[in-house]
Amino acid sequence: MLNPHSPSDLANARYLGRAADLAYYNASEGPPKFAAELGLTAKLISVDNTQVYLATSDDQILLAFRGSENPASLDGLKDWLLTNAVNMLVVPEGRIGSDFMAAGVGARFHFGFMSALAEVWDPLKAALDAELARKDRPVWVTGHSLGGALATLAAWRLEQQFVPVTAVTTFGAPMIGNQLAANAFETLFAGRSFRYIDDADLVPRLPTISFVSNQYVHVPTEVSLGSALTFGAGVQKALDLFHTLAQSSTQSVLQGTVREDLWKLVLQRIDAHLMPNYITLLKKHQQ
User: Fold this and answer.
1) Average pLDDT over residues 245-249
2) Is 276 exposed, middle or buried (0-12, 13-18, 19+ CB in 10 A)?
3) What is the pLDDT of residue 252?
4) What phi and psi, each to the nearest 5 degrees, are found at residue 210?
């Protein structure tokens, strides 16, 4: 059971982490697992390539966003995280961006993440509104990897549409906007936003445009769970590895073989990014 009076409680993270993991199950397999493991009645809402579980009990409502269809290969996310990252950082506009304009002049968000959330927004919001009309309860939002990015943006949109979010908790999530976007998010979600990372996981250091001056910035609050990897003997933490790469790179904007080599490193460390690893680390912190 989640504790709305202490959103930062690690017990909440363990519960939400399991929900983020269960979000990878399909519509027939997922609901029984949500019921058996978390005591929640769950429904999968799926539109095109975006999936989210709306899971409820008499005391809480939980939105768990799925990451990429095959998290072990990061399915087609290379373009969003590296190849086309510079073009994805945009000023929100039109129907997709209307709720994000509240972040202020100069705030930019990742267009791909905004678009993916927009695909599922209408049926998700309708289902959530129906649950809240039945009974007002704390709303929690979670997700892993791409699902973490969508969870972050969804929490922002919900607040803009007058649905209070108790907390948004993500695991291995990439960055979703620039510094002004992160500042606006920090102001709105102070004490209610928690990003859990494995120190070896490279995905939370993406998207990136440059090793030297990346325009993407993370929202708060980062919580390190340590790592399943042992550092030393040439194995560096993700942040230290980026610093090393920056010192050896002459490119102001990543391109060509440098970008390809970085992606190879991301995939080489994919085990550190997978949700089962995060669950293992959360359990270690329980001991």
Assistant:
1) 73
2) exposed
3) 56
4) -150, 145
Sheet holding 167-171, edge to edge: 41-47, 50-56, 61-65, 139-144, 167-171, 193-197, 222-224
Catalytic residue ranges: 145, 201
CATH code linked to domain 10-280: 3.40.50.1820
Selection from 241, 259, 147, 168 nearest residue 202 by Cα: 241
The CA-to-CA distance between both ends of the chain, in Å, stands at 19
* pLDDT for residue 209: 87
pLDDT of residue 287: 53
Residue 270 has pLDDT above 80, yes or no: yes
86-99 as b/e, with b when 16 or more CB fall inside 10 Å? Answer: bebbbebeeebbeb
How far apart, in whole angstroms, are the C-alpha atoms of residue 175 and residue 216? Answer: 6
Q: Is the CA virtual torsion 234, 224, 54, 42 positive or negative?
A: positive
Residue 251 has pLDDT above 60, yes or no: no
